Amino acid sequence: MNLPPEPAMEQREKYIARLIHNPGGHGLSETRMINTPQVLVARWARLKCQYSCRGISAPMFHPPQSPTAEDTSEVLETYRFGLLLRRDIQFKGGETGAQDLLSEFQRSLLKIEDAAFSRGYSRAFLYAVGNCIFCQGGSEEMRPCHYPGKTRPTLEAAGIDLAETLRMLGWEEYLIHKPGGALSLFGLLLLE
Q1: Is residue 176 part of a domain?
Q2: Residues spanned by the domain of 113
Q3: What pTM did the predictor assign?
Q4: Sheet holding 30-35, edge to edge
């Protein structure tokens, strides 16, 4: 028996429910729904990124090319909710191994954003973690981005105070990386 296709709204809701209730199936450790007023934005977060991040020269990914805190606040006002996505990773030293795990996480987040878009969230937009994984790597030179459809601003570069946002959600335990323990990576997927 052929069933009629599900309405788009049911497809959307089922996908979000799967992300929340089965995060492991999407390469995540946990997913939480967040109302956009709970995403805290502060100018200092962007400044900290601008003046202390090693990847600051990557176009579009970091200040001064990334959205300002004011831009981010204005964008958040046009959304009602999003998903805070977390993956805990274990790695045993070496910057190369950490970069590989970060790259895998960023790719999985882009797939999640694309899947949300294809299920009817036409305004799905992701804020990611880390440096650009596609062509910038550790380069210190400014050059045009060859993958503009795949780059996303980092949470802090866009002025999001990740630490306070995590505290508000009760995720403060993931702020501290203990030697030999898991490192938590985060992404924010805005949905509307």
Answers
A1: yes
A2: 8-191
A3: 0.83
A4: 30-35, 81-89, 183-191, 125-127
